[in-house]
């Protein structure tokens, strides 16, 4: 017994409730081959999460669900699997999580039977009051099957006293806080919604007479759907009888999308607020060059995250852009590895120096962001070992000093290099000749704003400023996490 309690204590200490990370969501309504289209959409959103994927479909009388570990292309590529997902309605989910809860049961979409019928739920984002809500629900007698905060939403929908599903959903979202984009499906409606600040992204597309909801526009392109518009912040859209309807139940808030979608997370070809992520990133590089005065021979990107910014920087400075690092495309994102040791190995697996380009050169090395410093530290060393004369690191975003609670994998302050070190100290740590970050107003300028609006910031930019639009209210008191940890223990077995 003592041993079990000790094991539980360790679990409690190590438990990380952030389970719904930078996922990708997708849904289609009333169209032939709905699950095949969903598989394609998820494939285009693969960069948003590679741990697991799932699809729920509805065939007119029954729901079907398939969930798998790993990549969409390895799991939903066969007729055999897609045949198990018949029907004209489908939603899908790509999952990314940092630690714990890697059980198949945590892979989405979730499905539940309510007194208004079945409902499938796919969620991107993180709730900042999930633990508090979960404890209240447990006190009222709810039983949780997974460790994911998405199940809190499902339970809230199920327990609502309203009779129509859409009203139950509205009831539920009045309770939740944080950054979230949800795609849901019942037997006759497809629903999409975004949190009141529009922190997490969601777009609407149209394919023939059918509507499509997806995290990013690249998922519309792959199936030939036309981009209609973004779901607005705090808006609920739903498709009923092929008609798109919109509700805005929240009191209006100024939109504040997550800046990291622009800097790193979205695929470069996805359109965010009228421009491709690629254009924004190139502009970050251009602006960084304007703020910089270093002499060098070539500009080298950290592929692929630094490509667009490096191009913008090189063009602005009229310096040659060259591929000094070659990427192995058969390795996932290095961040995906939960432990620091494996993550640093990942950098080596992924990149190698291109000798002919870097030998004897003064190099400006550009990446989109610096978080723990793992990538820069390894690459600078790699470039010097390959004969670089000087390596000047330039980061196309400001110093990351604060963690995230809205669904981006951004570690605790302890692990964030810029939270605890000066630029000079970081430069020494990564062994670069010099280091410079894009300024915060430069970032806003590059996005087309005059500067950051200090009263109503245009973006969710807490990473750099500590300004959180939604205050995280969950406190990890012992009594609050006991229930979760027990579940976490079960799911990891
Ligand atoms: P680090 O190596 O810890 O300094 O992290 C910086 C590298 O990770 C950069 O190459 C970024 O492109 C990438 N990166 C930054 N933020 C994230 C994130 N939330 N998830 C995955 N990768 C990231």
Task: Give a quick summary of the entry.
With 493 residues, this protein is an alpha+beta fold. It is built from 19 helices and 21 strands. The protein binds adenosine monophosphate.
CATH class of the largest domain: Alpha Beta
- Secondary structure class reads alpha+beta
Main beta sheet, described?
A: 7 strands, antiparallel
End-to-end distance: 18 Å
Q: Mean pLDDT score, rounded?
A: 89
Heteromolecules bound: adenosine monophosphate
* Spatial strand arrangement across the major sheet: 3-2-4-1-10-9-11
Please bin the fraction of helical residues. Answer: 25-40%
CATH architecture descriptor of the largest domain:
4-Layer Sandwich
Shape: globular
Low-confidence stretches: 1-20, 475-493
Find the CATH superfamily of the largest domain.
Aminohydrolase, N-terminal nucleophile (Ntn) domain
CATH topology label of the largest domain: Glutamine Phosphoribosylpyrophosphate, subunit 1, domain 1
Please state roughly what percent of the residues sit in beta strands, choosing from under 5%, 5-15%, 15-25%, 25-35%, 35-45% or over 45%. 15-25%
Taken together, the total number of domains comes to 2
Q: How big is the Rg?
A: 23 Å
Number of strands: 21
Contiguous helical run count? 19
3D architecture notes:
The structure is a single chain. With 493 residues, the protein is an alpha+beta fold. It has two domains: 14-256, Aminohydrolase, N-terminal nucleophile (Ntn) domain (Glutamine Phosphoribosylpyrophosphate, subunit 1, domain 1); 277-463, 3-Layer(aba) Sandwich (Rossmann fold), CATH 3.40.50.2020. Helix content is 33%, strand content 23%. It is built from 19 helices and 21 strands. It has a seven-stranded antiparallel beta sheet with strand order 3-2-4-1-10-9-11. Helix 14 (374-385) links the parallel strand 19 (362-367) and strand 20 (390-395). Helix 5 (130-139) packs across helix 6 and helix 10 (277-290) packs across helix 17 (440-446). The radius of gyration is 23 Å and the shape is globular. The model is unreliable at 1-20 and 475-493 (pLDDT under 50).
């Amino acid at each position: 017994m003592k041993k079990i309690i000790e094991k539980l204590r360790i679990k409690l200490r190590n438990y990380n409730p952030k389970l719904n990370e930078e996922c990708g969501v997708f849904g289609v309504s009333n169209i032939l081959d709905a699950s095949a289209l969903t598989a394609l959409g998820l494939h285009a959103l693969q960069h948003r999460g590679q741990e697991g994927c799932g699809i729920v479909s509805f065939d007119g009388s029954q729901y079907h669900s398939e969930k798998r570990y790993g990549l969409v292309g390895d799991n939903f590529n066969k007729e055999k699997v897609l045949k198990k997902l018949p029907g004209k309605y489908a939603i899908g989910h790509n999952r990314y999580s940092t630690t714990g809860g890697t059980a198949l049961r945590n892979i989405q979409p979730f499905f539940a039977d309510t007194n208004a019928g079945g409902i499938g739920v796919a969620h991107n984002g993180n709730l900042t009051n999930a633990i508090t809500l979960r404890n209240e629900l447990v006190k009222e007698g709810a039983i949780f099957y997974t460790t994911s905060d998405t199940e809190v939403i499902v339970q809230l929908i199920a327990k609502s006293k309203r009779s129509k599903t859409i009203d139950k959903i509205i009831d539920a979202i009045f309770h939740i806080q944080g950054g979230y984009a949800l795609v849901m499906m019942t037997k006759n409606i497809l629903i999409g919604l975004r949190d009141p600040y529009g922190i997490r992204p969601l777009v609407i597309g149209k394919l023939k007479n059918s509507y499509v909801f997806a995290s990013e526009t690249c998922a519309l392109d792959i199936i030939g759907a036309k981009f209609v518009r973004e779901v607005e912040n705090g808006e609920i859209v739903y498709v009923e009888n092929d008609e798109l309807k919109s509700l805005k139940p929240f009191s209006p808030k100024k939109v504040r999308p997550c800046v990291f979608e622009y800097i790193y997370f979205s695929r470069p070809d996805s359109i965010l607020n009228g421009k491709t992520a690629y254009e924004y990133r190139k502009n970050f590089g251009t602006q960084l060059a304007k703020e910089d005065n270093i002499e060098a021979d070539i500009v080298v990107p950290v592929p692929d995250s630094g490509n667009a910014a490096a191009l913008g920087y090189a063009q602005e400075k009229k310096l040659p852009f060259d591929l000094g690092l070659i990427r192995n495309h058969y390795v996932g994102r290095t961040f995906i590895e939960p432990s620091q040791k494996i993550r640093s190995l990942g950098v080596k697996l992924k990149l190698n120096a291109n000798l002919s380009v870097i030998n004897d050169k003064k190099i400006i090395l550009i990446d989109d962001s610096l978080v723990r410093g793992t990538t820069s530290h390894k690459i600078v060393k790699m470039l010097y070992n390959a004969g670089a004369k000087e390596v000047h690191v330039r980061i196309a975003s400001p110093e990351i000093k604060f963690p995230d609670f809205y669904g981006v994998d951004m570690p605790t302050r302890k692990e964030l290099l810029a939270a605890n070190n000066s630029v000079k100290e970081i430069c020494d740590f990564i062994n670069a000749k010099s280091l410079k970050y894009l300024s915060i107003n430069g970032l806003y300028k590059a996005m087309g704003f005059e500067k950051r609006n200090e009263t109503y910031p245009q973006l969710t930019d807490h990473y750099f400023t500590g300004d959180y639009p939604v205050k995280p209210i969950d406190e990890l008191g012992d009594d609050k996490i006991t229930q979760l940890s027990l579940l976490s223990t079960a799911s990891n077995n």
